[in-house]
Amino acid sequence: MLKPDRVEVIPTEGIVGRAVDALAPGTTVTVTALPGYDVEATVRTALKLAEAGMRAVPHVAASRIGTAARLADMLARFDDSPVDSLFVIGGDGDAAATEFGDGSGLLRVIRERSGDRFSLGVAAYPEGHPAFDRARGLEILAAKAPLADFAVTQLCFDAWEIVRFAADVPLPLWIGVPAPVGLAKLLSIAMRIGVGPSLSFARKGANRRLLGGFDAARLRAEIVRGLGEAAVPAEGFHVYSFNALPPASRG
């Protein structure tokens, strides 16, 4: 039985109110820390979501934080809040610009400082990453596993590729899927904010059908069927909303 969806949002103006209106109380809402967005926006949005009754999970990116002093300040603010989970990533920035080197270094520092105060998540890449291939990505996950509590996959549009990858992941796995948005919008936003290790999926084999249309519900159904047939466990779906939340359901 899969757990209820997690929903990822970008910390733009008004997103807290929209999330509270559109999502059930207690929904896990993760808050990105993307290049071009102020880290403070991530922190502030996560704190407001937590105060509003959501389970907020801020992204903590090594390339965006930079220094141990800034990290300590951020963690102190979360210590004094209901926030109990963090998503720890490298952030694809210049390793020389951060004291942590990469996501692995940041993960280690947070665990050493905070112990079990936070549940810590890490990123997983079914089709690899521009900096490493699938096999190397699994090696990195294995090295992080003793310090992490869960992993979330980046976008992948091949259900069976996801299932095969999930079978090899040494952590409880949330499977990243897009919200039901049109393909043109999906591609446009993904290119702008860097979601997904590459956008070559639209030119690759089984994914060429996406050029003519995309059905998020069908992808989810294919993944569920594949997990069942392969007897591969997963926690549930992590929905990349691109802030395309459902219309307000209250008020």
From TrEMBL:
It holds the Pfam family MTHFR. Keywords: FAD, Flavoprotein, Oxidoreductase. Belongs to the methylenetetrahydrofolate reductase family. It comes from Microbacterium alkaliflavum. Pathway: One-carbon metabolism; tetrahydrofolate interconversion. Transmembrane segments: none annotated. Its cofactor is FAD. This is Methylenetetrahydrofolate reductase. It comes from the Bacteria. GO terms for molecular function: methylenetetrahydrofolate reductase [NAD(P)H] activity. Coiled coil: none annotated. It catalyses: (6S)-5-methyl-5,6,7,8-tetrahydrofolate + NAD(+) = (6R)-5,10-methylene-5,6,7,8-tetrahydrofolate + NADH + H(+). Signal peptide: none annotated.
